[in-house]
Specification:
The structure is a homodimer. Chain A is α/β, with parallel strands linked by helices. Chain A contains eleven helices and twelve strands. The first copy, chain A, folds into two domains: about 1-65, no CATH class; about 65-290, 3-Layer(aba) Sandwich (Rossmann fold). The first copy, chain A, is about 40% helix and about 20% strand. Strand 5 (about 115) of chain A pairs antiparallel with strand 5 (about 115) of chain B.
Chain lengths: ~290, ~290
Amino acid sequence: MNRRDFNRLVAAGTAGLAVGAAVPDEAQALTMPELPQDDMMKVMTRFVDDLAEGDPKAKERISPSVPRQIAMIAYPGMFPLDLLGPLSVFSDLLSTQIHLVWKQKQQVSAGRGVTLTTTPYSECPQKLDVVFVPGGTVGTIAAMKDAETMAFLRSRAESTRYITSVCTGSMVLGAAGLLKGYKATSHWLTHELLPQFGATPVKSRVVEDRNRITGAGVTAGLDFALLITARLAGENYAKAEQLNIEYDPDPPFKAGTVKGAGPLVAGAMSRMYASSLEAFKGAVAATKPA
Amino acid sequence: MNRRDFNRLVAAGTAGLAVGAAVPDEAQALTMPELPQDDMMKVMTRFVDDLAEGDPKAKERISPSVPRQIAMIAYPGMFPLDLLGPLSVFSDLLSTQIHLVWKQKQQVSAGRGVTLTTTPYSECPQKLDVVFVPGGTVGTIAAMKDAETMAFLRSRAESTRYITSVCTGSMVLGAAGLLKGYKATSHWLTHELLPQFGATPVKSRVVEDRNRITGAGVTAGLDFALLITARLAGENYAKAEQLNIEYDPDPPFKAGTVKGAGPLVAGAMSRMYASSLEAFKGAVAATKPA
């Protein structure tokens, strides 16, 4: 790998995993943290070679000559972790541009002092490797009803390699007509609504049906993003990222499903979310293609 | 719960879980998403009652009269998900103020268009329920060497209920002398360095020893934050949050540990991170209390 190749490798964005976890922004991707750039180039060349096992096609998948393009819709009111989990994993892909897109350039709050800066839909590339929709409740319903968001998703449907969502983000894909005839999943709250979009609901952490890849609620975004990483950059690279983020989960309780949480907790949650579910039902009825 | 109680419940910040996932910022916490405030109060009263199983002490733990105080050090160069995972879970605690703290008020980049707005250490409450340190590489090493950060952590050591970290954040706690005589964990890369701080290294997802609670790498922050939630708000509330974020993990590979990743992937990662490990070793030697 020569210097130009290396610059291309990192120029698309943060070199993420390549520079450890230490790159606070895109600008710093080119100033390697603890090593001079020449040394870092050698390290990265070796890293890519190791994971590609000497196969030129595998190398090209790990670090494509033409940067990958990923668009993530960052709408106000999304559940922040739905987006931030996958974003963190996607940020570790080499030679990858990530676009946080919304109707306009905006500082979108993700709560508690966290802000996302968006790019307008109009400035997002046409040809995408991944388009991604996070979930939420009221913000998600607003996105389902938003003509510009629907138009953006439909405009990218044919030219995008993977059309994806996590959590109630599948409601937005469904509203755009993009799940019709596909197997899909959603947050447990809205899972029952998938058939209304002509989708076949599957109770699985991540559901892959041709180029539709949907994840279950919130934290399914990690399982989802590692699968996407494998599809884009190969299994060795996905495994390296899984080790990087030490994803060997061990939840303190078995309460991650309605059944596992038990009737007391699941009942309390269902009652708390009852009005949200009703609001989703209304939105589904209103946005369902005629 | 009367209106004042409910305002207190949400006024501390986003009412998080209480209002679904739809609250984009603190201001909107008081304008409930799909329900009028009076109705939302009823819903929340019922929710708290359900989870408290009618026990007044349990109610007080779920929604304390005096808001909880959590400080999370948001330093430049942290690994974003180390902080954003736990932040998302902590944001769903009721009656809880979260302070993203750093040396000064600053827009700290968390990469890819994500920004955290920090509060200066000097404005952070003295009495905290939780102080938390995320990990990273070069940024973490800088934090270990930063006198203000060390002084902040030491100043809160006696008055804080839980002193915590995720990932290489334990290196920062160690550098401040706060892990001496405690069992602890860290990201797999730096786990071997824990004894240098007088800590007893434990290979576990989350390690709890008296009031020190440390998590392993990056995604261990979810397991960690649910345990903290249980300690602060009780097991029912923690289970409700686990169901809320549908944390029923199912990674696509078994590569979340060095052993599981296998020699090819783990070898590539270890070589890629070799200079980071050396930099950590140097920092540990330099910051070790005499």
